[in-house]
Amino acid sequence: MAVTIYDIAEKAGVGIGTVSRALNNSPHISLRTKEKVQAVITELGYQPHAMARGLAKQKTYTFAVIVPVFTGYFFMEVLRGVQQEVTKAHYDMILYSVDHSDKTDLFLKKVTREKRVDGALLISLGISDVQASACTRLRFPIVLVDSTHPSLDSITVQNRQGAERATSHLISLGHTKIGMIDAQLKSSPAQVRLEGYRDALKKHGLPLDEKYLIISDQIAGQHGFNRESGYLAMKQLLQLGSERPTAVFVSSDIQAAGAVRAISEEGLTIPEDVSLIGFDDIEIAEYLELTTMRQPMFQLGQLGVRRLLERIANPDLERFHRSFDTELVIRQSCGIVTSTN
Amino acid sequence: MAVTIYDIAEKAGVGIGTVSRALNNSPHISLRTKEKVQAVITELGYQPHAMARGLAKQKTYTFAVIVPVFTGYFFMEVLRGVQQEVTKAHYDMILYSVDHSDKTDLFLKKVTREKRVDGALLISLGISDVQASACTRLRFPIVLVDSTHPSLDSITVQNRQGAERATSHLISLGHTKIGMIDAQLKSSPAQVRLEGYRDALKKHGLPLDEKYLIISDQIAGQHGFNRESGYLAMKQLLQLGSERPTAVFVSSDIQAAGAVRAISEEGLTIPEDVSLIGFDDIEIAEYLELTTMRQPMFQLGQLGVRRLLERIANPDLERFHRSFDTELVIRQSCGIVTSTN
DNA sequence: ACCATATTTGGAAGCCCTTCCAAAATTTGC
DNA sequence: GCAAATTTTGGAAGGGCTTCCAAATATGGT
Questions:
Q1: Cβ atoms of B216 and B255 closer than 8 Å
Q2: What CATH class is the domain A159-295?
Q3: Rounded mean pLDDT of chain A?
Q4: Sorting pLDDT into bands at 50, 70 and 90, what band is A219?
């Protein structure tokens, strides 16, 4: 058996309550005994039993981070931000990865009842109204990152405005035949970015040509935010021949990576034949010389944790919503339309 | 208060022991009562309290995964493999990230005493002899991935052989002035890859020229496996002017990415002016057309978890060591030396 | 020196489960 | 139909901690 609070109490010649007080640096203990107890604690290499403490305190100093199967730089960056704050706050994080977005609710149901965690951070995953209200009813602290729900805290990116600016950027370079490659609309960022694309076209009096809008196929519940689907979508766009768009706004850099490949396979060049603008600014965007809209991924994770900790500390906080600006990062993938076009 | 086992017992008209038996599908319960109890459980939406269960059972169905601050595709891939198996096994994973490799022992010390987890997976992190023997003494299940210790289970990659093959590949293309960019030697893969490099030179009767061997600077406790350090190292190599190596083996793709930049900044081209071979086969290697040694990252994670679960189930297992082969992935970054060279 | 306050202390009760033992219910054998 | 063997059941004890209350000790005022 490992060393317990009773061993410490006995060896230090105090009661177990006193040991507990020394441990939790309670104000109701004299400095002298506290130091005496702490000496014994280090001597025996004692460490409180996390489960016992969690049970007694009804608090686990742990929270759940629920992410879609994390493939991709985006989640990695968000998680880095999460990690940094988690460590700072001396919390632990349990990582759950959801292989199909429909299962999000199941995970949440488990997590909210099991009392293994003090709260949850939901990343890029939607939540049903039923679960959302269950969370508020149970006063279970939860923060959405890169996703929203009217009745919950959320931290997002200005997807609509970002998409609008991306598209407008292409327009400002003289493009009029502007395509969009989007992911499945059941993904909220995909949905909202499409709106931004529409906004921009409308604002500049350009028609929305349905054949220029390609929705990536869903692969393995992943909403199409992947290279393969971007590749396929771009192939489709290029089949339009001379009718093809001169510029394309792609809803994620990873899809744009696939698009780049499709374009070069057709013997075309970027940006001469087709301009490309992405979204995210992931690592490979730099290699691809891809112009893109940068999302503050690290900060999303960071702020998510901070907010969650605040809400854990005080569950009665006002609803909170923060939306980060995106930033246009100009590289080499967008060209100006010359009169010869 | 949430619904407990007592609520279930009362509503089902049975004792608490019976509810527990229904929950853990014990053989000592009749089918009839079991179903009756389960009906009540679903009706009330009961979920066992994880902490209480953990305390009573002395088993948490959770383990720790300890990684260096995970920046980079390598860890992401390993983690994906880990996740997949963890989910399959209905375990939870707590992710700890160590910002400085010296702190590994601290984390382990905490984790082994706290009883929050049933075991730990250590990824790309070394362990001291003291901690290693503490783990065996406490019979704490632990598996090392991408790192080794004589007295613990480990899963690695044949770094030495891989590095030897990478270097030999360059030699077979006719190169004789072959440099190496390595990370800090306190990182075991870095150390071992250097040995492989030496093996290859020796085998082919080539001299080891110290000026061709650059050890990346350590940045933020990260052993130099990053782009910046690769960039700097390559700059240094290129300053040798006409004396510069015609080919370089870089100990990781991410460093190679930095090296690529350094080379192009000098107005040189790959592979005409300098050939490059990396290690890992991370995502951007494809974009860089980088020839490299592929590591089975996903499988490392997968097998790590499997082994850990086996050891948790049976702590008396024989020591285990598995080393994966690397695979040469040939792309465009290595050229043949022509007679004009 | 003595009482009133304030501080510190010990340990019982409780957090929610599992496990074990003894008791109750059921089945089996004849 | 009855005793013996077997299966099923209830619930006390225990896992390691925190918290609370009452008791003990210390402090201060006069």
A1: yes
A2: alpha beta
A3: 93
A4: low
Q: Which amino acid is at B128?
A: S
Contact B2 A70 (CB under 8 A): no
In B, which residues are within 8 Å of A48 by CB distance? 114
Residue of B nearest to A2 (CA): B113
Q: Do B50 and A115 touch (CB under 8 A)?
A: yes
pLDDT at A221: 54
CA distance B203 to B207: 10
pLDDT digits (tens, 9 = 90+) for A20-59: 999 998 999 999 999 999 999 999 999 999 999 999 999 9
Q: What is the CATH number of domain A58-156+297-324?
A: 3.40.50.2300
Q: Residues of CATH 3.40.50.2300 domain(s) within chain B?
A: 58-156+297-324, 159-295
Domain(s) of CATH 1.10.260.40: residues in chain B = 5-48
| Closest approach of B210 to chain A, Cα-based (Å) | 32
- Residue B251 and residue B225 in contact, taking contact as beta carbons nearer than 8 Å: yes
Q: How far is B161 from chain A (nearest CA, A)?
A: 29
Per-residue pLDDT, B341: 43
Strand stretches in B29-166, DSSP E: 62-68, 92-98, 120-123, 142-145, 153-157
- Tell me what the mean pLDDT of segment A275-283 comes to: 95
Report in angstroms the alpha-carbon separations of A239 from A28, A244, A249, A271, B13. 77, 7, 17, 18, 70
Q: What DSSP string runs through B151-171?
A: TSEEEEE-HHHHHHHHHHHHH
Return the C-alpha torsion angle B214, B220, B221, B226, nearest 10.
Answer: -50
Could you please state the CATH topology (level 3) that the domain comprising B5-48 is classified under.
Answer: 434 Repressor (Amino-terminal Domain) (1.10.260)
Q: How far apart are CA A207 and CA A205, in angstroms?
A: 7
Tokens encoding A106: 């199941």
Question: b or e along A310-336 (b: 16 or more beta carbons within 10 Å of the residue's beta carbon)?
Answer: ebbeeeeeeeeeeebebeebebebbbe
Mean pLDDT by 10 residues, chain B (341 residues): 91 96 94 95 96 96 92 88 95 93 91 96 94 94 96 97 98 97 90 96 96 81 82 95 95 94 94 96 90 97 98 94 97 82 43
Q: Let me know: does B164 contact B178? Beta carbons within 8 Å.
A: no
Q: How far is the CA of B30 from the C1' of C26 (A)?
A: 11
